[in-house]
Amino acid sequence: MTRLLLVVGVASALGGLFLFGLLRGRPDRDIPSNLIGRQAPEFTLPLHSSYRSSYGETFSLGANAGRPMIINFWASWCAPCYQEAPELATAWRERGTEVLFVGIQTQDRGRHAEGLEFINRFGLGFPNVIDDASLVSIDYGLFGVPETFFVNAAGVVTYRHIGPVSSAVLEAQIGALIR
Amino acid sequence: MRRALALTAILAALLGTAPAQEEAPGLLLEQRVFEIGRKLRCPVCTSESVADSAAELAVQMRARIQTQLEQGRDEAEILAYFQERYGDWILQDPPKRGPHLLVWLLPAGAALLGLASLVVFVRRWRRAAEVPVEVDEADLERVRAALDRG
């Protein structure tokens, strides 16, 4: 009887572990950002050439303090970034006066021409900068691209979205930022 | 005398007391970068450390480790830097606190349980061996006779 209980116990424990592994989904998608509730890391990065006449040579987070902000990380090789870009372009056209949008091309070293092609393809009117050394990527604790950070007027990160951002997420988070 | 000196030199070399060739500082720095990189998970890979991965982000993380080493930061400070940005997730060895303790305690618990089971099993087996085996006297006689016959 004891032996049977032992076998059943061990089998249940192993089965439970197996089920946990199967059902936990993609763990990287469940990890909350360590930046939530903290000041968004400062950065100053060069702008893509098409924005320089309007915004200057570089874009600095600190210089735009006091405005709610959406920071979107993307790369020219990333398929989900192509999926979300039209949503971002639409949201910027509709809410760009209330919230500052910034795009950061990252983990995409040297592919400036491809980045510019991406920007032109979707008519991204908001400033897009180049993070060639992926340093800002590390500062924001990125797990991949695309990722989008929502920063309130006090400069505090309120939400991080991993993967392509939808119009529903943008609408809800912009609403929370300007409330 | 000459023979004694030669013997001493050979012995010194064998025991590793001969002055070691100094490694280039650049090489040592690179070794330190990879040592620390092995303690960090690559954020964009599956089951790879920052030291093992060729992903662009991992390469940039190694560059960041190198810059910090050059600035005089030690390993603990560099690991804390990445932990601050990525959380405990980034560490290959989970910290020995909170729920992470389970990862360290469970294997030790399992090993102890295994050891205890082994002790119980051996004791039972010994006890069983000590109980005299009942053998039929007629059978025993037949075996003895067969042995005597050779």
What's this, in brief?
The complex is a heterodimer of chains A (179) and B (150). Chain A has 179 residues and is α/β, with parallel strands linked by helices.
Description:
- By secondary structure, chain A is α/β, with parallel strands linked by helices.
- Helix content of chain A is 40%, strand content 19%.
- Chain A has two domains: 1-30; 31-178, Glutaredoxin.
- Chain A has helices at residues 2-23, 52-55, 79-95, 112-122, 135-139, 167-178, and strands at 44-46, 58-60, 69-74, 100-106, 128-131, 147-151, 157-162.
- In chain A, strands 5-4-3-6-7 form a five-stranded mixed sheet. A two-stranded antiparallel ribbon of chain A has the order 1-2.
- Chain A is elongated.
- The model of chain A has no long low-confidence stretch (mean pLDDT 92).
- By secondary structure, chain B is mainly α.
- Chain B has two domains: 24-93, Helicase, Ruva Protein, domain 3 (Orthogonal Bundle), CATH 1.10.8.640; 99-149.
- Chain B is 64% helix and 0% strand.
- Chain B has helices at 2-14, 25-37, 56-70, 75-86, 101-130, 137-149.
- In chain B, helix 2 (25-37) packs across helix 3 (56-70).
- At the A-B interface, helix 5 of A face helix 3 and helix 4 of B.
Structural class determined from secondary elements of chain A: alpha/beta
How many helical elements of chain A?
6
Uncertain runs of chain A with pLDDT below 50, 5 residues or more?
none
The count of DSSP E runs of length 2 or more, i.e. the number of strands of chain B, is 0
CATH topology of the largest domain in chain B: Helicase, Ruva Protein, domain 3
Measured between the Cα atoms of the first and last residue of chain B, the distance is 71 Å
Q: Spans of chain B with pLDDT under 50 lasting ≥5 residues?
A: none
Q: What is the CATH top level name of the largest domain in chain A?
A: Alpha Beta
Radius of gyration of chain A: 21 Å
Order of helices and strands of chain B: HHHHHH
Tell me the strand order in the biggest sheet of chain A. Answer: 5-4-3-6-7
pLDDT averaged over residues of chain A:
92
Largest sheet of chain A: 5 strands, mixed
Share of residues in helices of chain A: 25-40%
Could you say what the CATH architecture of the largest domain in chain B is? Answer: Orthogonal Bundle
Total tally of structural domains of chain B: 2
Report the β-strand fraction of chain A as a percent range.
15-25%
H-E string of chain A: HEHEEHEHEHEEH
The largest sheet of chain B is: none
